[in-house]
Automatic annotation (TrEMBL):
Highest taxon above the source species: Eukaryota
A cellular component annotation (GO) from this entry: nucleus
Similarity comment: family membership: Belongs to the HAD-like hydrolase superfamily.
One family name in Pfam for this protein: Hydrolase
Protein name in the entry: Haloacid dehalogenase-like hydrolase domain-containing protein 3
CDD domains assigned: HAD_dREG-2_like
């Protein structure tokens, strides 16, 4: 059967799709605090980080760029607030820890490539597919990808800091399509977030695939995403693309 569809561009989320932190946030924060003479439980820091990150994202979306912040200042404030919520009220004691954490998370050695990611990217390129990144990351991403040997696979890396809009804002997907000079019907996005990646890409007419982990899917997501667009691992992507290209067009 002849292909009814020819995907030309694949765009990729990064964190928890291609990469993840080598050590959990709570452990990393606790280790750095200990090196500066502070003892804080990793579990407390993990919970405090989730709360601080969520509050900062709501108050100053996309690294607070529209409020005059830099992404570095945004992250330093998240660290300060994390330790405050975990019971460390001395901001001067936390400031050098925040600086160290920002620098450490800028280094490729703090990240690890997820299983199957590099092999999948290579196979996609062998097929002649163009690859790009669409990520709600900051300016450190280029160097991280370079250091991990992944940057060479991508035509371009579009971060929300550079674009000015975070996923699922349609404008960041539209900017990626403009840079690639392709129509949304021949592009597909791969990511692990249902609202940001799967729905965000589909809202502009792209195809999308949702990377899922071993945990049970949320019922609403399970009811909303057809099985053929769920990827238990990245090794499932190429068969899923084959299925998509051989499927009748949606009406």
């Amino acid at each position: 059967m002849a292909h009814r569809l020819q995907i030309r561009l694949l765009t990729w989320d990064v964190k928890d799709t291609l990469l993840r932190l080598r050590h959990p946030v709570g452990e990393e924060y606790a280790t750095k605090a200990r090196a500066h003479g502070l003892e804080v439980e990793p579990a407390s820091l993990r919970q405090a980080f989730s709360q601080a990150y969520r509050a900062q994202s709501l108050r100053f979306p996309n690294y607070g760029l529209s409020h005059g912040l830099t992404s570095r200042r945004w992250w330093l404030d998240v660290v300060l607030q994390t330790f405050y919520l975990a019971g460390v009220r001395d901001a001067r004691a936390v400031a050098p820890i925040a600086d160290q954490l920002y620098e450490d998370f800028s280094k490729p050695c703090s990240w690890q490539v997820l299983e199957g990611a590099e092999a999948t990217l290579r196979e996609c390129r062998k097929r002649g597919l163009r690859l790009a990144v669409i990520s709600n990351f900051d300016r450190r991403l280029e160097d991280i990808l370079m250091g991990l040997g992944l940057r060479e696979h991508f035509d371009f890396v579009l971060t929300s800091e550079a674009a000015g809009w975070p996923k699922p804002d349609p404008r960041i997907f539209q900017e990626a399509l403009r840079l690639a000079q392709v129509e949304p019907a021949v592009a597909a996005h791969i990511g692990d977030s249902y609202p940001c990646d799967f729905k965000g890409a589909r809202a502009v007419g792209m195809h999308s695939f949702l990377v899922v982990g071993p945990e049970p899917l949320d019922a609403a997501v399970k009811d909303s995403v057809s099985q053929e667009f769920l990827l238990p691992s990245l090794s499932h992507l190429l068969p899923a693309l084959d299925h998509l290209e051989l499927s009748p067009p949606e009406l």
